[in-house]
Every structure is written in structure tokens, then in C-alpha cells.
Amino acid sequence: MRYPLNSPLGRFGIVAISSTPERYVASIPVGGLVNPLTGAPTIAPMAMLVDHICGLANHERRAPDEWTVSSELSLEVDPDAAEMLAADPDEPVVATARPFGRKTGTALGVCELTHRDVVLASATVRSFYLPAPDDIAPFPDGPTGPPPAGTLAERMSVRVAERGGAGAVLLQDEDPVLNNMLGIVHGGVSAMALELVASAAVNRDGDPLQTGSLRVNFLRPFHCGAESRYVGTALRVGRRTGVAEAQAIGPDGAVAISARLTAYR
User: Fold this and answer.
1) Residue 249 half-sphere exposure, CB side, CA atoms within 13 Å?
2) How far apart are CA 99 and CA 187, in angstroms?
3) What CA–CA distance (Å, rounded) separates 210 from 80?
4) Buried b (16+ CB within 10 A) or exposed e, 7-31
5) Are 72 and 214 in contact (CB under 8 A)?
6) pLDDT 10s per residue in the chain (265 long)?
7) Rounded distance, CA 69 to CA 188, Å?
8) What is the pTM of this model?
9) Three-state SS string across the chain, please?
């Protein structure tokens, strides 16, 4: 099943393959997409798929009067993933998720991501359960189809503000299609952007460092706005490894989401 193009899931081409209480499967196109800051192939859309499919495994365990929001996202990636995707860019990445452990005030969803049946990554999302808000928007209704033409940056409505040195910055323009049903930027979109700026921060020169892990903490709601941005800062860049931190900063100047990325060559 394809999602409406006026929803975050449809915008990035996520396709629902199957869904049961113990197994959730979906795919996303990744091959051929590049980091707008570096021009290099990127695995960032995998974070979008993880936030959706693991979050769904948690969301489907809610009580009738509950809702979920992502608290943490963790992604462990084969550093050769970008090369594997380049070998068959038309084949999507498939994620298979399941609930893990018992549900309390939070829940954990775990998943495995594959490409041509080769495991590329494993991931988790922890979600908070909260009382269902009164102002939840209905899920968008509209035409479905493949993702719109254009670059990854255009689909994400981000613009390069700074690159080079020890930092990288993407501006998050307003785009209601990127919002979830609570009216804030979809967590998967933010996770993608944080991977992009952190990866760019450790790839200033030389042979590329490929993402090996991404850890994201969702601290507060993140909204689009004139001052909304993602900032990546290199903490260490060595011959074989690099570590960067990244932040999503809202229009009020407060940090809404924080991440740490480790990359390898």
C-alpha cells in the first residue's frame, strides 16, 4: 500500500508491505539519493523508514485513549551500505519490525533493514505513551504514487546554509507535508536531516567516512520556521573514524532533537 503524496510517508515513497501485531514490513527507496551538503550518496532515508516502522510497532500497542511520540531512535549500519545500494539503486530498502519487551509507559520496537535480502542495518525506536490529544489531525487523504521528482533536499524542504570547517547547517523551510498528525515535523524527517549534517561534518576532506551508527534523542516538539535548522559539528575526525553531534534547533532557538553519529572508513 502506498501512502498519500501529501503525507510524510508518501513524500518519501514508503510502501506498506504487511502488518500484523507481531510483524510490520515496509520499504523505502534509497539508492541514487545524495547528501545536499557533500554530494555523496546517503543512507539517511533509512532513518525515516526506521522511525515509521518501529514507531508503528509501538503505536499499535496503544490503548484507545493513548497516543505515541518517539523518544529515542538508534540505527546501526553496515559501513558498506552505500556501496551495496549503489549496486542496485532501483531496489528499495525493506524494514521488518516487531515489538520488543513489555509495554509500560514506553515501548520498544526493533527492526532489521535489508536490500536484496542482504542485511544492511538494525535499529530501534522507543516511544512514550501519552493521553491522546484532542487536536489530532486526520491522516491526509489524497493521490498516491511514487515519490515526487526532485532531489532529497527538495523533498525534505531543506537548504544548505553552511558547509566546510568543522560544521554543517541545513535550514528547515516550512512545509506542512512534512508534519505528522500532531502538527510537528515528522521524527523521521528530522532523523534524516541530523544524519545528513553530522555525516557532512565528519567528511570535510579525504576518503569518505561512512555512517556506522546514529543515536537520536527527541527532547521536545520541533517545528518548521524561519530560524529552524539542523546543525552538525565534528567532535573528532581521525584516519579511520569520525564522531559528530547534531542538533535540530527550533524557531525559538531551543534544541528540540539531539543526535550523535559515528562513521568509519
Assistant:
1) 16
2) 19
3) 7
4) bbbbbbbbbbeeeeeeebbbbbbbb
5) no
6) 999 999 999 999 999 999 999 999 999 999 999 999 999 999 999 999 999 999 999 999 999 999 999 999 999 999 999 999 999 999 999 999 999 999 999 999 999 999 999 999 999 999 999 999 988 989 999 999 999 899 999 999 999 997 766 689 999 999 999 999 999 999 999 999 999 999 999 998 778 999 999 999 999 999 998 899 999 999 999 999 999 999 999 999 999 999 999 999 8
7) 12
8) 0.97
9) CECECCCHHHHCCCEEEEEECCEEEEEECCCCCECCCCCCECCCHHHHHHHHHHHHHHHCCCCCCEEEEEEEEEEEECCCHHHHHHHCCCCCEEEEEEEECCCCCEEEEEEEEEECCEEEEEEEEEEEEEECCCCCCCCCCCCECCCCCCCHHHHHCEEEEECCCCEEEEEECCCHHHECCCCCECHHHHHHHHHHHHHHHHCCCCCCCEEEEEEEEECCCCCCCCCCEEEEEEEEECCCEEEEEEEEECCCCCEEEEEEEEEEC
What is the separation of C-alpha 129 from the centre of its chain, rounded to a whole number of angstroms? 20
The Cβ-side half-sphere exposure at 40, using a 13 Å CA radius, reads: 23
